[in-house]
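Researcher: Structure for this, please.
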Amino acid sequence: MTTTTTNEVYIVDCIRTPIGRGYSNGSLHSIQPIDLLSYTLDQLMKRNPNVDRGLVEDVICGVVSPLREQGANIARFAALKAGLPINVPGVQLNRMCGSGQQAIHFGSQAIRSGDMDIVIGCGVEMMSIVPMGSDWQLDNPKFVEGFNFKVLHQGVSSEMIAEKYNLTRDEIDKFSGRSHELADNATKKGYFKDQIIPVTLQDGKVVDKDEGIRVPVDYKKMSTLKTPFKPNGKISAANASQISDGASAVLLVSGRLVKKLGLKPRARIVTCTVVGSDPEYMLLGPIPATIKALEKSGLTKDQIDLYEINEAFASVVLGWKKELNIDLDKINPNGGAIAHGHPLGATGCILMTKMVNELERSNKKYALQTMCIGFGQATATIIENCSYKPISKL
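Model: Predicted structure, token format:
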């Protein structure tokens, strides 16, 4: 058990909803974003009765399409709807796909600075209700002119990465199938049970599993799918992240208050970082982000027991793996966004929730999470398992 230190930041708890397909026939489509987020916040606090709701000093929420049903500072409205007292503020942010992870970072930084003691970092995205790109104007020539780089679609960038690292279509598809198979295995063995909060729909149906996982994997069919970003390319719908609905929340507490309230922390935030990267090869940001996080932490890549890298596209993960020479067995051991989906603003907190739970389940010490971000950015976080117990070697 890690000894708590006053100026350290700890994850006391983390939860997520099941992830639904982000279409009108998806399992969560009937729920409004504010209701899914408020339910998640309420469940987080109910799981932690020793933390008075009035002690929460901010609710920071990642939302990638922050308009209409997901606008108007959904963090504040969802917090109020969840029964948090009126003194608890809220703010939403958009760092594109890194938004949920950035919410954790901002909360961690507020605590580490001494300004706050308890913050909830969270995220929500209902892509079936507010479609991806609703807040963009990339089809407006005046919006995209004047840059010294090409403004490309992420899918085009993912094809460029596949070429850069000489990735074959078969290699990419096999990694994608692996994601589904690992996620299915984790579901069947109950690895996600304690992290997923079941959602009851109006008709009484209970949703408690990620909807996008497809097994057995039909590799033959996968190889025949069209490649929309490049004729005879390598990137298809089967080896890219799914359009999804979901929410997640992480309870961050200072070492001082962990000790005062007698809380049992689950993980310690070791370091947080964000980088900018090439806007055309926009999805390679996790490479410098990973390097920077390791340098700031003083850890080596071999000391990291588990990596969660967002599967925006399989080529992103495989390019990162080749560049840094990361052991495949350490990468996304319970599958990733290709299988369970990528509800944009929520995914950063979802991956963190998965990572904390897997560290505990496997009794591993350190984990690193990184996410590519549109137009050349990436976030990275390293955490330490507070319940880690070294296995003595004979």
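Researcher: Any notable elements?
Model: The mean pLDDT is 96. The two ends are 22 Å apart (CA to CA).
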